[in-house]
Known about the structure:
Layout: E1 4-8, H1 12-28, E2 34-39, H2 87-91, H3 101-118, E3 123-128, E4 132-136, E5 143-147, E6 154-156, E7 158-161, H4 172-184, E8 187-189, E9 207-211, H5 215-224, E10 231-233, E11 236-238, E12 245-249, H6 277-284, H7 292-315, H8 324-333, H9 339-346, H10 356-360, H11 371-389, H12 396-411, H13 420-429, H14 434-445, E13 449-453, E14 457-461, E15 464-468, E16 477-479, E17 481-484, H15 498-505, E18 524-526, E19 532-538, H16 559-583
Parallel strand pairs: 1-2, 1-7, 2-3, 7-19, 8-17, 9-12, 9-17, 12-13
Antiparallel strand pairs: 4-5, 5-6, 10-11, 14-15, 15-16, 18-19
Helix pairs in contact: 1-3, 1-16, 7-12, 11-14
Amino acid sequence: MRPSLVIVGVGPRGTGLLERIAANAPNLYAASELDVHLVDPYPPGGGRIWREAQSPLLWMNSHAEDVTMFTDETVTMEGPVREGPTLHEWAGVDGRLFADRQRQGAYMRWVYEQTVAALPAGIRVHHHPHLAVRVDGPRDGRQRVWLEGRTEPLLADLVVLTIGHLDAELDEEQGALASYARTHGLVHLPPDFTADSDLSSLKAGEPVLVRGFGLAFVDLMVLLTEGRGGRHEGDTYLPSGREPVLHVGSRRGVPYHSKIGYDWTGERPPLPRFFGPAEVDSLLARPDGFDFRRDVWPLIEKELGFAHYHRLFTAHPERTTVAWADFEEKYAVADAVSLPALVAAAVPDPADRLDLSALDHPLDSVRHPSYDELQDGLRAYIEADLARRHEPAHSPDLAVFLGLLSVYGQLVRLGDIGSWWHGFFSYLASGPPGPRLRQMLALSRAGVLKFLGADMTVTAEDGVFRATSATVPGAHVEARALVEARLPNPTVERTRDRLLRELYAEGAAATAEGLLAVDPADGRVLDRSGSPHPRRFALGPHTDARGSGAFTRPRTGGPAFRQNDAAARAVLAFLRDLSGHAAA
């Protein structure tokens, strides 16, 4: 019987794993046979999120030159580097273009096809356009993968779950809001991948409360404006008359920061400096564990500050009062108490200082007497953000971005560190393209989009949804529709994915945040005693080894690529040894 591997989920993560299998197979699995079964109801390559069959109005939030599915020498891994084109090289487009998701889906399909073609002759690939609903089987024997609509399971020597983003059952608050909506004839759209949401219930001209100001909101904004026939002409939006009126708020009350609109020049900060492998080793070695805020965050703050000030002192020395070497020496030994005075003496302009707390809470001290006055204030905030993120004089911001990428690469080894960091990273480093924020301003001026402010709360009473915020004390906005503009949290307890839910019910371990617990070395699924399952692996955002994305910027180390390589090598070594024992 031929060895068999089943990969559940063939979006970018499953494709990336398959690419690493193709890269490592000549050395680890030469001249051997293998059936690889790919299970995904969506086309291989793009999967659900990046499928080609979605609105051409939806963009990526990365420049085309910053998207690659191929490894390079910056990836720390045992397997061989197999270089390939970035999205912009493959598509032949301007590297600074924000490509639409259809084009990214086509790129992912091409990567998948090239990967399959690169597999050794003995490895055969079979795609099953079904949903996997269950995995069972003994720890020391073949696994069975059951597919929706099929009566016979796929038999697998190993199973890898690269499922990606998960749908989820409603939490207690969402359930109460949904129940109230059903009782009172209101509309409640829970967290979802926006391209899959049915927006037809949001009627023209009617107010809609939107909770969430990140990338899911940007998609919602586009689909309910341009998607309904409106158009942008320069800085002016011309409504079609079919748009609802969107009232948006969130915890911060502001959109994610604009993508930076200029290229790096000159010396890069030497990262990691204060948060690298040695510091991670030390954290992992603590017998009583570590606390993110107490033990990890101070190291991250020091690292991001180093990146910021290295750039400021080396690229803009006229805005500092001392030499970089002197500042660096004192910065290295400064603590939380002495650091503010050191920075204030060396960096005269407060706008040149890095204040991560202020960045995370931009509206904390902002109050407006009415929502009308808030609109002008928020438009001014967005305009200032756009100006700063497109002005090379503020290039320390780009250095902090590089620092964030470096930090993310280290954090992968620490497992589940809670959700706050991932949100903070996305807010600073993974925001929308500048043109989307300019469209947001045009929609605001046209009255189609209205801002609610920070610490938004929603209640259901008197037959409507009612929103308040800390930014406009005592005021509220009412609507008969509420949209939760964010992806569901990837928890195995509340996931709608039957396979993961049953895996958890049968003993797979989950973290406090509800992520599937895996061995950080190779992605093997852990049980509640901490033992890795010899025949089950998992990679991606539903695990506690989630990386910063299944694809990444070139030459930034690609944590997901490193994880894919480790898992691919473990898979091939297991199957090789299994075949060897069988032959003997």
